[in-house]
Design goal:
Elements: E1 15-19, E2 24-28, E3 39-44, E4 54-60, E5 62-63, E6 72-73, E7 80-86, E8 91-99, E9 111-118, E10 127-128, E11 154-155, E12 166-167, E13 172-180, E14 187-188, E15 191-198, E16 207-211, E17 218-221, E18 230-233, E19 241-246, E20 253-254, E21 272-279, E22 288-295, E23 308-313, E24 320-324, E25 329-333, E26 346-355, E27 358-363, E28 366-371, E29 381-390, E30 398-409
Antiparallel strand pairs: 1-2, 3-30, 4-15, 5-7, 6-14, 7-13, 8-11, 8-12, 8-15, 9-10, 9-13, 16-19, 17-18, 18-30, 19-29, 20-29, 21-26, 21-30, 22-23, 22-29, 23-24, 24-25, 26-27, 27-28
């Protein structure tokens, strides 16, 4: 927010008078009161470093043999020692290592093989997180493997398939150490660590989210891209998938403050509660949709987002409007002034609300029209979001997001 220039003597927002034959009203221009706490304003352009995007999780490996339940890798052939890690934030596995309290020499006959499998949220996933080539990698074999030294990190080699390393909040990674032959000694107190990098530029409120069964939809920041651009992308798995960016279901945007439909509250600034600059690289096709706007908690079923004010695009690339206030339901409402978007071109999507009964949608300088959210309660709160979804199919839709911004009055 820009404060009032010093020395202007301005004590209130600048207002413009809009007049027609049937209506006259006062609206504030996009100039803000000098009080820096008068507005709540959050934005990201995916260019700033995100130190909060790196984190690690760990798990002990437990001997699961009958009556064992001990933190060690035993010597017996066929023994499995298992650990589990639950992912806390959508992102990418960037490193993995083991630390133990014992040494174990290399051997091509008596050795350990390590595997990491992403079970997903449902516990049925089969995605391998570690490399299996060249021969001996991620083992303690003499050929291609490495020894375990007490207190020294044993570094795992991750899968060369980038999509395998994409993880989602709630995924469970199962770690297994399998013994072949008879080890020279037990490996005592083995602890596995996984390092993760979440999406750069999304520190703080801005969070990636996904809904899927077995696939790996992703939200990533493209490297060496002018101005910083995030990519939301689904994968070829034929299943229902959703990926996007929101505030992680932290609902902080309050409602506009005009009290009744017949009165425009001149203290409601006609500024954009939501703004996004984004591109659809390849036109959406059947069973694909993009929603962009503000709403309550995210859901795998887009119509289950209980209250929403959003642009809605499907295969024809003609934006419609979603507006649900808890009483009135408008799904894919046709715009008063329709517009067909072109794939591969950036557009600025914005939503302004002067009052709850006049929520205006714009793409660049093209006004699509207004909708009402008149039944929302004074206590209703919202979050901004970009929501890309497919019902099925092997195509890989994506969206490029240059920046996102959301703001509202504090009082």
């Amino acid at each position: 927010m820009l404060p009032w220039p010093s020395g202007t003597g301005l004590g209130a927002p600048i207002r413009s008078q809009v007049q027609s034959a049937i209506k006259r009203m006062m609206v504030e221009d996009e100039v803000y009161k000098g009080h820096i706490y008068g507005f709540f304003d959050e934005a990201t352009d995916f260019a700033e470093p995100s130190s909060g995007g790196l984190y690690s999780l760990s798990a002990p490996l437990i001997d699961i043999a009958a009556s064992a339940d001990i933190n060690q890798i035993p010597v017996a052939t066929g023994a499995n020692t298992v650990g589990y890690v639950r992912v806390t934030r959508t992102g990418v596995i960037s490193s993995a290592w083991l630390i133990a309290n014992s040494n174990l020499a290399q051997s091509d006959t008596n050795y350990i093989t390590f595997t990491f499998t992403n079970l997903g949220r449902a516990g049925t996933g089969t995605t391998a997180e570690l490399a299996t080539t060249p021969a001996g990698v991620n083992t303690t074999k003499t050929t291609g493997g490495q020894a375990i030294s007490a207190g020294v990190p044993y570094i795992f080699t991750l899968s060369a398939t980038a999509a395998n390393l994409t993880v989602n909040a709630g995924d469970v990674i199962k770690v297994i150490a399998t013994v072949t032959g008879t080890l020279a000694n037990v490996v005592d107190m083995p602890q596995v660590f996984l390092g993760f990098s979440s999406v750069g530029g999304l520190s703080g409120l801005w969070q990636p989210f996904t809904f899927r069964t077995a696939g790996s939809p992703s939200v990533t920041v493209l490297a060496n891209t002018a101005d910083g651009v995030a990519q939301i992308k689904l994968d070829p798995t034929s299943e229902a998938q959703t990926a996007g960016i929101s505030w992680g279901d932290q609902l902080l945007l309050n409602k506009p403050d005009s009290p009744v439909s017949s009165v425009v509250n001149v203290d409601s600034v006609e500024f954009r509660v939501f703004e996004a600059y984004l591109q659809i690289p390849v036109a959406l096709t059947t069973n694909q949709r993009l929603l962009v706007g503000v709403g309550t908690a995210m859901s795998a079923t887009n119509t289950s987002i209980s209250k929403i004010l959003a642009f809605h695009l499907e295969a024809n690339m003609v934006p419609t409007l979603d507006a649900r206030d808890g009483t009135n339901t408008n799904n894919q409402l046709a715009a008063t002034r329709p517009l067909t978007l072109v794939a591969g071109q950036f557009y600025r999507f914005s939503i302004s609300w002067v009052d709850a009964f006049n929520c205006r949608f714009r793409i660049d300088d093209h006004s699509l029209g207004t909708v009402t959210m008149g039944a929302i309660a004074a206590t209703d709160l919202f979050q901004p979001f970009v929501y890309l979804q497919k019902a099925s199919g092997v195509s890989v839709p994506s969206v490029l997001v240059d920046y996102l911004r959301a703001q509202c009055r504090r009082y």
